[in-house]
């Protein structure tokens, strides 16, 4: 089955063509540099940017996949959750393509899509990334990511998925490709949001996750005693805002951010201590829920799954055979994961397609 998918829920405009589990094209235009000056995504700018880039990204994906629309079996699109103005660009483009190419269209839940990233096989050279620049400089799609096998063959249902990104933090019980139940979530900030906020306090560039991840290995993770919020609470949920506040307090008590900006050692120590606390909370809670749910396998997905500290600590605590992370280019938002998820869902009828809307607050079913 060959599916072309569109993803535009936040600040990446992405189109992919996937045949069964093999990615034929995975094209992403990232707006990170546009939003960097504001230290966070500006929704109005994001939707304008999606409008500008959706057709060039589509064209690049079709060329890369050497794919004529007639050879496709269907289309898929992220319906939600996400920023409404951003989602609408993808949904309306997908509807227009489905009508003109006379193809079935499948709406996909973004979080469900992240989980399906683990079932994608990425042959070398099939990903392209465009970093959109604010000053309209000439930019071209550059190769991104290397050959990565799909771990699907050694991963069977049911399993637990830890979905960690800038907007989401979920523990999902995955019983089948289309059956995912929320068994845990964040009570306040998502982990990526905590990374981004802490980085902002330290004067590091947006997005904060990669910046902190780069500095953390150079520091001492025990230098600052930071809390592990709700780790030992009896429920399955996360909380990250207390950890962020604790970092703010450390900065204040040390005499302000300048102290850290002037001392690379102190900066690295604080990054290492924050990362150790965040990873401890994520993995500690996840291990407890795996025990409660009697699940032996874990898939860690979403932008924060790029984190090297999280990857190595998870491998150490759980062992490689029960653990899977997608390659970094498929951890952050992409359309390949949406195409792969759509293969397990029902497409809309013609009538339903005409009425398809975007759903910014779409949720997956929760455990009663
Ligand atoms: O999945 P994603 O691209 O978008 C959302 O759906 O939110 O995730 C983006 C988030 C950002 O908060 C970013 O700081 C975080 O993922 N992130 C990381 C790393 N790379 C990206 N966090 C920690 N370590 C990283 N290496
Ligand atoms: Zn995402």
* Largest sheet: number of strands, sense, barrel closure: 7 strands, mixed
Shape: globular
On the 0-100 scale, what is the average pLDDT? 94
Strand content: 15-25%
Given the structure, what is the number of helices? Answer: 13
- What is the string of SSEs from the N terminus onward? EEEHHEHEHEEEEEHHHHHEHEHHH
Unreliable stretches: none
Percent helix, as a range, is: 25-40%
Classify the secondary structure makeup into a structural class: alpha/beta
The ligands bound in this entry are:
5'-O-[(R)-(carboxyoxy)(hydroxy)phosphoryl]adenosine, zinc ion
Radius of gyration: 20 Å
Strand segment count: 12
Distance between the termini: 35 Å
- The strand line-up of the biggest sheet is 5-4-1-2-3-6-7
